[in-house]
Amino acid sequence: MRVAMIQMPVIMDRAANISTACRSIREAAAQGADFAVLPEMFCCPYQNDCFRPYGEAEGGPAQAALSALAAELGIYIVGGTVPELEGDRVYNTCYVYDRQGRQIAKHRKAHLFDIDVPGGQSFRESDTFSRGDQITTFETEFGTMGLCVCFDMRFEELARCMCLRGAQVIFVPAAFNMTTGPAHWEPLFRQRAVDNQCFTVGVAPARDEAASYVSYGNSMAVDPWGAVVCRAGAEETTLYADLDLNRVEEIRQQLPILSSRRTDLYTVQEV
After folding, report:
1. Alpha-carbon distances of 168 from 137, 185, 246, rounded to whole Å
2. Do 196 and 225 meet the contact criterion of CB atoms below 8 Å apart?
């Protein structure tokens, strides 16, 4: 299963961002990618004062462009996130399209990024966004996939629920910053992969030092043993990760973490 991880720049021009994403997806399809994955807020600057103005309702132009492109190219698209408008609410939402362009998953970010690190990053997504309330997996010809957004990945319970549903890969459109990224990005993706014995794929925007919110970049894929398959730097790039899903079952047999859980002592379950 070939995954194209599109670490693209995000500028103030919404139409230009969508055009950049579509061009990169076309290049990914030409390179034989089965999945193209975009970063969090791929068409919108990561700023509270931009989320609502750049937002769109279900079936809006960014979504329509990705759906049409998935059908044209015969590729799965994990569409980063867009600000989704529903009534007076705004959600940080990822849409997934199959090879026919059908929407097969939708994840609204469930854990909002409200942090204040002295001398570092301060941000409150809850000033604009509402929280999602779903654990999201979807089915493909390769098997079950998991999906969450950025801060969601910090919560092991969410990842474990996706794993228990059968997820072999967890896709994570994200935008860690220059405070949290250097400290936690790689350890987090490696640990979630080890904990759940699955692949993890995190895709972030390219770094723009002049932006009000500076993305760490460093898009990466990790295998079920915790080994880094590939990792970007700060630059605009597309990485290609060839994921051997047989590796999931091999690791689970070699190191029987999931089958050895003491469910008589503890459980993680969906509400």
Report:
1. 10, 20, 10
2. no
What pTM, to 2 d.p., does this model score?
0.97
Each residue's pLDDT tens digit, 4-25: 999 999 999 999 999 999 999 9
Total residue length of the chain:
271
- Assigned token pair, 232: 């970007």
Q: What is the residue type of 125?
A: E
Closest CA to 44 of 77, 69, 81: 81
Backbone torsions φ then ψ of 216, nearest 5 degrees? -70, -25
Model confidence pLDDT, tens digit, residues 60-97: 999 999 999 999 999 999 999 999 999 999 999 999 99
- Decide if 206 contacts 237 (C-beta within 8 A): yes
Q: Over pLDDT 70: what percentage of the chain?
A: 100
Positions marked active-site = 40, 109, 150
Q: How far apart are CA 55 and CA 82, in angstroms?
A: 7
Cβ burial, residue 229 (10 Å; 0-12/13-18/19+): buried
DSSP annotation string for 129-144? PPPP---EEEEETTEE
What's the pLDDT score for residue 115? 77
